[in-house]
Design goal:
Elements lengths: L1 E8 L2 H11 L5 E9 L3 H14 L5 E6 L6 H8 L8 E6 L3 H6 L2 H8 L16 H11 L3 H7 L11 H11 L3 H5 L3 H12 L6
Parallel strand pairs: 1-2, 1-3, 3-4
Helix pairs in contact: 1-8
Length: 199
């Protein structure tokens, strides 16, 4: 039986990550609507509404922890009611880029950098996006530098989401990545075991 679910994400890269995660569900999930794609501000404003709406259609909300102290604190700040059973609110520690870096064996050749330059403990990285950009700067591959290294005052490269999105779709090994990221593992465990539940 097909189960329709909605996504709420910060950007296109997070959408692709969420879609890949849903592939591990034993249920047949079909994405109905995608909300957000406007950064964390929109998600924070609408999180309470998504929680209420999930009583009808299940929602997966994925956001970055960024500078917040911990995922439970962020969730309590965003939603002032108990989370509905089918509202899966997940927080990437500290950014979704850390989940990509956690698949060291595949991200290093994709970026064209030595394996030893990709950290083992991704959830201790203060700014995963900045670290990833730093790796791209050292890449011998021009396409990597052109896509990921910011120009001028930009915080990320001109094809950051597109370039990393192709990695997610074609190369990202979730089973490898989850061994180095507790936040990713917990999200996948819920999807594999009991989300979404029966309506």
């Amino acid at each position: 039986m097909t189960v329709h679910v909605n996504l709420a994400v910060e950007d296109r890269l997070s959408e692709l990550v969420a879609r890949k995660m849903l592939e591990l569900s034993p249920k047949e999930l079909r994405i109905h609507l995608v909300f957000g794609l406007e950064g964390y501000g929109y998600l924070r404003k609408k999180a309470g509404s998504f929680n209420q709406a999930s009583k009808g259609t299940p929602y997966l909300l994925l956001t970055d922890l960024d500078a917040n102290p911990c995922p439970p604190t962020l969730i309590r700040e965003w939603v002032d009611h108990p989370l509905a059973p089918n509202f899966l609110f997940r927080v990437a520690v500290r950014e979704v880029e850390a989940w990509l870096l956690a698949d060291r064996e595949n991200i290093s050749p994709y970026l064209g950098v030595p394996l030893e330059t990709v950290p083992e403990h991704v959830e201790t990285i203060v700014d995963p996006k900045e670290l990833l950009i730093g790796l791209a700067r050292r890449s011998k591959r021009r396409a990597v530098r052109s896509a990921l290294v910011p120009q001028g005052t930009a915080r990320q490269g001109p094809d950051h989401n597109g370039f990393l999105g192709r990695f997610v779709t074609d190369s990202w090994d979730l089973q490898s990545a989850r061994t180095r990221s507790h936040s990713l593992h917990r999200a996948l465990r819920r999807i594999e075991n009991d989300w979404p539940g029966s309506a």
